User: Fold these one by one.
Assistant:
Number 1:
Amino acid sequence: MLHTYKEALAWIHSRLRLGVKPGLERMRWMLARLENPEQNLHAIHVGGTNGKGSTVTYLRSILNEAGYQVGTFTSPYIEQFNERISVNGKPVDNEDIVVLANVVKPLAEELEQTELGSPSEFEVITVMAFYYFAYIRPVDFAVFEVGLGGRYDSTNVIQPIASLITNVGMDHMQILGHSIEEIAYQKAGIIKPGTPIFTTAQNKQALAVLKMEAVGQKAPFYQLGKDFFIKDYQPVEKGEQFTYQSPSMVLKKLKLSLLGRHQTENAAAALAVLTYLQDSEQMSIQTAAIRSGIQKAFWPGRLECLSEHPTIFIDGAHNVEGLQAFKSAVETHFPGKKIKIVFSALKDKDLRDMFAIINSMNAELYLTEFDFPRATAAEELKKQSGNAAAQCNEDWKNLIRELVLTAKAEDIVAITGSLYFISEIKPFLIEVIQSRPQDTAQD
C-alpha cells in the first residue's frame, strides 16, 4: 500500500528501469482486470512526430470554451509529473495520484508473475489515466497523446471517435524504423476501422502509407491542403493569424497565442476534427467558442516567452522538424536580429542535421548538458556541432544564470533542445529571471 504522493511517484518512476516495452498485451491484461475503463470514454487519439501536445491543447481549449469537461493525457511533463493526466487543463491532485497508483500497483505485481512480464512506467501511467477519466473524474471527452509511434503504443487500446496524425518525420529511428515509410507505418497504427483520420502530414511517402492504412481500415481520410485549408497566414504581435477553411466552415482571422507558423497547422487539424464531430452531431460548438478557445490555448515549453525585456523563451525543439519550426518562428518574429541559443539534446537524436539548422541561424551558440541517462555530454555536442565558435559549459545553471543576468533589454535568449532539458531548467530559469535587478531590465 502506498501512503504518500512521494511513495506513489517513487513506485511509478521505478518502472523506468524497464525501458520502452512496445506491445498491447500487458495493457489489455490490466484493463480487463479493471473492467475496461477505456471503453467508457469518448476519446480522440493524437499521434505524429511533432505538434501532438499543441494539437491536444487546441482540442481541449476549444471544447472547454464550449462547456465540455475534457481529460487530456500527454507526455513528457514540463513543470510537474501530474500534468500528464489533466482535466480542463488542471493536473490531477497529488491525492488522486496515490489512489491511482494503489489501483494499478497490485495489477503490475500480478502481471509481473506472468509470461507477459512487468508493465513499463508509461503503461502504468496510461492505465491510471483511463481509470481516472472513466471512474474517478468522468469527462465528456478524453484526448490521448501517443507516447511513441502509435501501432504498439500503450494508448492504442482505445476505440476513438476520431484519430489525428500531425506530421511524420525522422525521429526515434532506433525503435520506429530508419525510413520515413517505416515510421509512417508505426504512426498509421492508430487508424481504426471506420474511424475518421485527420492529418497535417506533407511528406509524400508518409502520406502514401497513411492513406493505404486508411483504405485498409475503411477509415475516412482528411488531409491538410486537400480537405481543409489554411489561408491568409500572417504573424501578429505575440502570436499568429490565419483563416481556416473546410467544405462546412470558413473562419477568418483566427488568432493564436502560440508562436510559429507550424501552430496554424496544429490548430487547423484540431478544427478539422471538431467540425467533423459537430457535423456528425457528436458535439455542439459555437463559433465564439472556437475563436476564444483557439486564442486561449497555451502549451508550456513550446516557444514559451518567460521574459520580454530581455526576450527569453524556451522551446522543446527536440528533433530536426522541431528545430526547423523553431528557426522559422525566430526568423519570422525577430527578423534580422542575432539571438543567443542554449542547446542540449539526447544521444539518440540526429545531431548533425540538427546542428546544420542551428548553424544556419544568426545566433551565438552555447552548448550544455543535464542530468538524464540519455543526455549528450556538452563536449560531445561541441564535436558534433561543427561550430568552432560554439561555447561549451557543462554546468547549465551557471550558464543560464550568466546569460540571463548579463542580458540587455534588447537581447534575445532562447533555450531549446530536449523536452527533458526544458522541463529540468524551467523552474530555475524563472527564478533567475525574477532575480534580475529592475534597473537591469531597462538597460
Number 2:
Amino acid sequence: MAKVITFFTSIILIYIIYNYPVNKGYPLLGFLICLIVLSFSASKIYSDYKKMGDETFENVEKNTDKILKNNGIFEYKNDGFSIKQGNTLDFVKWIDVESISHFELKMLKKVSQNGIEIVTNKKIYKIHNNDEQTIGLEKFENEVNKNLSIEKLYDSEVLSDGSSKTLLYQKTLN
C-alpha cells in the first residue's frame, strides 16, 4: 500500500512542479503535503524491507514445504508408520493407536520439555522436543489427520506444577 501511495504522490508532486510556480499559495501547500507523504511512505517501505530480511513469502513457503515433507524419525506406510528411536525401528498400525497427546513439562514456570505421546495397545512412545526428533512432527500431524478420524477436540489438562497434557486423538469404542 505504501508503494501505491508513493507512486501517486510522486505523480502529483511532478504535476505541481511542472504546471505551477511553487513559491506561494495552494501549489506550495500541495508541494509540502506531497513531500511529507513521500517521506513517510518511503520510510515505511524501507522499515518493512529491513524487518523482513530473508523472510520473503517465497522463502517462508519453501521452508514450510521442506518442513512438511520431512519424515524425521517416522516412515509411513498405508496401514501405519514406523518410529525410529535410538537403534530400534518399531512399526505401529494406525488401528493400534489408542491415543495421541501433546505434553508440555514445566520447571520453575518455564517450559523445559514438550513433545507428543503415542499410546498403542502394545507400547507407549514419548517423543521429546529436540532438534533430532521433532523434525518430522509436522508431517506426522498431517498423517494422523489423514489416517485417523478425529471427531472430537479435547481441552488441555493442566497439572498443579503448570505442566499440561492435551489429548489430540482418542480411539472411540464401538
Number 3:
Amino acid sequence: MNDGRWRGPAEPVPGDEEVLRRILAAEADRIEPGPGALPAVQRRIAAGDRGAAGRRWWDITGRRWWGGRPGWSLPEMTRRRWGRWSPLAAGAVTVATLSLVAVAAGLAGTVVPTPSDRAAEPPPGAVGTDGSATPTTPTGDVRPGPTPSGGALAPSPGTSAGTPAAAPGAPTDSLAVYYLGGDPDRPRLYREFHRLWLRDGSARDRITAAVRNLLDSPVGMDPDYRNAWPEGTDLRGVTVDGEIATVDLAGAARHDVGAATARLAVQQLVWTVTAVPGVSGLRLRLDGAPVDRLWDRVDTAGVLRRASAVEALAPVWLISPQHGDAVGRTFPVHVAGILPEATAQLRIRRDGRVVREQVVTLSIAGPAQGERTVTVTLPPGRYTVTAYAISLADGSEQHLDDHTVTVR
C-alpha cells in the first residue's frame, strides 16, 4: 500500500545470478557428507564423470540434495525459474558444485570393522558380483600389497625399502590382518583392517596382499600388536584350490620362540588367510616343501583351520576406532570380548586425565564373543581409548587394549 509516507531506500531486486547464489549457499549449508563420500568422489573424478542433468545428488554426499526426477536437475530448475541459463549462472553452479565436492573430499572415510572379517557392505575397491574390482584413487593410508601391472618398486611410509608400490588408480580394498598382543606368555590375536593394493580382487590376490602386508613389519598400526613370524620371512607364492589356500614362505625355517607364541603365529597366518571370503583352510609350505612341524613347536601337517575364538582371540578387543584413526566429535566405539559376565569397561583419557569411564555390557557372555557399540562425543583433541575387563577374583584390570585417536 502506498500512503505517501517515505519508508527509506527500497531494497534492490536481486538479479538472476544473485538469487541463484543465495539458493546454492542455503543448500550447501544443509549438505552433510555421509561416510564413504571421499571414495565416491574419487571414483567419479578418476572415471572422468562430470555429471548429467537429472542425476540424483545423493551419489556423492550420502544424502539426497536435489530431486533426481526428470526435469529437476539444477540446470533445469534454474531454467524453469528464470527462463534462461546464463553463462554467469552456469559458472556459479560449477563453483558451488566444486565447493561441495571439496567438502566431501575433505572428509576421509573410515572403515568401521565388525567382529566378522567381512564388512557389512563392500568398501570402495571391493570385488563385485562379477568378480571385478572397482578402481579407486589411492589415499595416504593405503598400505602396499602386490605390485599391479605397471607398478614400481619403491619404499612406502611404514614399510621396508623394496616393498612393491602400486600404480595410481590401482584397485584397493580393506583386508583383515591379524597380530599377536596381550600377555607375552599367553598371547592372543587382535585384528586390524588395512587398505591394500590389489590386482584383480581374486581370493589369491587378496591372500597375497594380506600376507605380504603381515610379513612386512614387526608390528601393526598399533605398536602393541606384533607379528610373530621371524624377521626376513618372505612370501614365495599363494595358490587357491577350492576353499583351501596353500601359502609358501621363505626365511621362516628357524625361529626361537616358545610353544604358545609358535601356536599363535600359525593361527595369525590362518586367521588372516581365512578372512578372505570363500577360503576356510590353509596348507603351509616352507621353501616349496610341506612342513609337518614348525620350529619343533607346533604341528602343521595337512590342512590348518582356525582355532576356536576362546583359544585364539583376545578376551577384550577394541575393534574401532583403530589406532591412529581421526574421527569426528561424535563417533562410535566398538568393543568385543569373550567374558563370562559379558561386562567390559571403557576408559577415555586426554593428557593423562580420565574424561570418560563407563561399563559396556556385551551382547552375549563367553565362551561366545559378545560385542557392543557405544556413541561418544568429545571436543577436538588427542585421546587414548581403552577397553578392558575387571577381574572378578581381585578387582584388577585385565586384558587392556588401547588405541590413540584424534578427534577433529
